[in-house]
């Protein structure tokens, strides 16, 4: 453990659910740690979600370790309910947090890592990167996109349907964000859903609870070297939350295959026809926000970090949590982060104890 008062045992970069879950388990050790959050207030990426965003699971199935999310008025908690829960959670456990602190780089020093944020820096024996993906939205390249005179916005910056009222809108992306935003925008606009393949809809009775149970069973089977048969359906398939069911009942929950290119006024489809479009909403996912690790030389060609579980293979003082399946099964979900966060905290404690 750390014997130098000026050097922390652990710095956690990020202030969302993954950072808080990791902090919960570090708090149960004797290790010193600090959370550096780029946000001005609690809530992590949830603060940037659109106004009507809802979870796929009830509150009891959307909790991080130690304290259950309070029940919500509706079956599926709203964005604001999640933000309130995370704010109460960090206050409940009185985590050491500094915000707003936007980390710009991490470099190696004798016996640890130095974390930089502008003209400020902190030293620690180990670093946990928990910055998520929300700050690095992914927009695919399409021929002629620079010619298009309409509006283009990523779901990361979509708040509500009001700016699109009465317009012709393409919603691009086959996941849950695409389905939910299509459902909302289609109530006020002429909306067309564009997906690379036919969307995969889960049965109405299947929600996040069922998906997490399946993911847990798969994880257990992998640990035991077993192969199990499960129904089709993964965390990326579309959950039939009430707004999406309502869109289906209105007959708007259908999708076209991608267009070929942009024009100034719209898009050209594969059959050569042109559609005039006022706006495109890209629901095309995110990349891991890892630019702050570039100086360490740990980023691979895909912009990720090669890990064993959550431990960097190239930098033994670095761990990554909450970026998706490559950092732990279901680790980018509220309920799924617990297993990964616990294992990460235990591994860090074990490594540092061996150095004493």
Automatic annotation (TrEMBL):
GO terms for molecular function: flavin adenine dinucleotide binding; monooxygenase activity. It holds the Pfam family Pyr_redox_3. Transmembrane segments: none annotated. The lineage of its organism: Bacteria, Pseudomonadati, Pseudomonadota, Gammaproteobacteria, Pseudomonadales. This is NAD(P)/FAD-dependent oxidoreductase. It comes from the Bacteria. The keyword DNA-binding does not apply. InterPro entries: Auxin_biosynth/cation_transpt (IPR050982), FAD/NAD-bd_sf (IPR036188). It comes from Pseudomonas kielensis. Keywords: Oxidoreductase. SUPFAM superfamilies: FAD/NAD(P)-binding domain.
